C-alpha cells in the first residue's frame, strides 16, 4: 500500500480542511505534527513514505535531505512558491513536485494580520489586555492612525493591499523596494521615496518583500537606527529580511517605539527568544497565511494532487523528473 504522510501540521487541522477519504481508501495516511529537530530526524521519519504533503516552507527539502528519502516519489507543496525545496534536485532524483493554486483573496490574510499588528501597537491592545487581567485600569495612551505616515517596503500584491488599507485609515503612504517605479507606486496610491527617507520619516514601517539571496538582510542596523523614536516596525514577510539583533538593540535602547513581528529567523522560536522580554513587541507565530480559506485551498488541492498521481495523470506539476 502507498504510504502518505502529512507533515508540518502543527495544529492538527489538515484532515479537517479537505475530504481525505478517497486517499485513505487507497493509501496508509499518517501525520507528523511536530517540527523536525534537524535533517537527520526528518530523514529517519520520512524515509518510509512515497508521498509527502507539506505546509508552505516549514520543512526545508534541500538536495541533502531528498537524497536520503529512497521511497519518495511525490511531494505536494502548498502556496504559490516553495523556496526551501530544491526543485532541480527533486527532478534529478525522480521526485515529482505538485503544488496548489492561488484562489481569489489568497493574499489577504497577511495584510489583514499586518494591519492587526499596526492597530495593536497604536492602541496598545495586547498590553492593555494583560493589564486589565491584572486589575490595572488603563496604563498608557495610544495614538490614532489618521494623518500618520505608513512606509511600505515592497509594493507587490500584499504591499499594495497595505497601501489601500492605510489610505482607508487616512494615512499618508510611502513606498520603497529595489525595483519599484513611481508609476507602480502611484497606481497603488503610494509615493516612491528613497529607502533612507522612508526609514527616517515613516511612523509605521511594514515589510512585504519576497525573501531571496538578494533581499536577505536588506533591512539592516543602519535602517533601524534611522527610525524615529516614536516609530513602529512591522514584519509579516520573512524573518531573514531583517537584522533581528538590531531590533532587539533598538527596543533595549528605546530608540523605536515598538515592533510587530509574525516572522523570525528561526521558526518555531523556542522558549527563550530575546524579543519575549519586551512589552513593546507584539509577536505572533507566523499566522499571516494561517486562515481557513487558505488552508482549505491548500489541502483540497493536495488531495486532488495525490489522487491524480495515483491515477498516473499528475496535475499542478512544479518540476519535470526524467521519464522512467
CATH class of the largest domain: Alpha Beta
Unreliable segments (pLDDT under 50, ≥5 consecutive)? Answer: none
**Which strand order do you get reading across the main beta sheet?**
8-7-6-9-10-11-12
- Kindly estimate the percentage of residues that lie in beta strands according to DSSP: 5-15%
Number of domains: 2
Q: Please bin the fraction of helical residues.
A: 25-40%
Present the secondary structure layout.
Layout: E1 2-7, H1 21-24, E2 27-32, H2 39-46, E3 51-53, H3 63-66, E4 74-76, H4 87-92, E5 96-98, H5 109-122, H6 125-133, E6 149-153, H7 157-168, E7 172-176, H8 182-187, E8 191-192, H9 195-201, E9 204-207, H10 221-226, E10 232-235, H11 244-253, E11 258-261, E12 281-283, H12 292-310
Description:
With 324 residues, this protein is an alpha/beta fold. It folds into 2 domains: 118 residues, NAD(P)-binding Rossmann-like Domain (Rossmann fold), CATH 3.40.50; 175 residues, 3-Layer(aba) Sandwich (Rossmann fold), CATH 3.40.50.720. It contains 12 helices and 12 strands. The protein has a 7-stranded parallel β-sheet, sandwiched between helices. A 5-stranded parallel β-sheet has the order 2-1-3-4-5. α7 links the parallel β6 and β7. α5 packs across α7. The longest helix has 19 residues. It starts with a strand and ends in a 14-residue tail after the last helix. 40% of the residues are buried.
Amino acid at each position: 500500500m502507498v504510504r502518505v504522510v502529512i507533515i508540518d501540521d502543527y495544529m492538527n487541522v489538515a484532515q479537517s480542511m479537505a475530504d481525505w477519504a478517497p486517499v485513505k481508501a487507497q493509501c496508509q495516511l499518517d501525520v507528523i505534527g511536530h517540527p523536525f529537530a534537524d535533517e537527520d530526524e526528518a530523514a529517519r521519519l520520512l524515509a518510509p513514505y512515497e508521498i509527502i504533503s507539506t505546509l508552505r516552507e516549514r520543512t526545508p527539502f534541500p538536495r541533502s535531505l531528498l537524497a536520503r528519502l529512497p521511497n519518495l516519489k511525490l511531494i505536494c507543496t502548498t502556496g504559490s512558491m516553495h523556496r526551501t525545496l530544491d526543485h532541480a534536485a527533486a527532478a534529478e532524483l525522480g521526485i515529482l513536485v505538485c503544488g496548489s493554486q492561488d484562489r481569489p483573496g489568497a493574499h489577504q490574510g497577511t495584510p489583514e494580520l499586518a494591519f492587526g499588528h499596526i492597530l495593536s501597537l497604536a492602541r496598545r491592545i495586547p498590553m492593555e489586555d494583560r493589564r486589565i487581567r491584572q486589575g490595572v485600569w488603563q496604563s498608557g495612551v495610544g495614538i490614532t492612525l489618521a494623518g500618520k505616515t505608513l512606509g511600505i517596503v515592497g509594493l507587490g500584491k500584499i504591499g499594495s493591499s497595505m497601501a489601500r488599507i492605510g489610505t482607508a485609515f487616512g494615512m499618508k503612504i510611502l513606498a520603497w523596494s529595489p525595483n519599484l517605479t513611481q508609476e507602480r507606486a502611484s497606481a497603488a496610491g503610494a509615493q516612491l521615496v528613497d529607502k533612507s527617507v522612508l526609514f527616517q520619516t515613516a511612523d509605521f514601517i511594514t515589510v512585504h518583500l519576497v525573501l531571496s539571496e538578494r533581499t536577505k538582510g536588506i533591512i539592516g542596523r543602519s535602517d533601524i537606527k534611522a527610525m524615529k523614536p516614536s516609530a513602529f516596525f512591522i514584519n509579516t514577510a520573512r524573518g531573514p529580511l531583517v537584522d533581528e539583533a538590531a531590533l532587539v538593540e533598538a527596543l533595549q535602547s528605546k530608540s523605536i517605539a515598538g515592533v510587530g513581528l509574525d516572522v523570525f529567523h528561526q521558526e518555531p522560536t523556542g522558549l527563550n527568544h530575546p524579543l519575549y522580554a519586551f512589552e513593546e513587541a507584539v509577536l505572533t507565530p507566523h499566522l499571516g497565511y494561517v486562515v481557513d480559506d487558505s488552508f482549505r485551498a491548500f489541502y483540497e488541492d493536495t488531495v486532488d494532487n495525490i489522487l491524480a498521481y495515483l491515477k498516473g495523470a499528475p496535475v499542478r506539476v512544479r518540476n519535470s523528473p526524467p521519464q522512467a
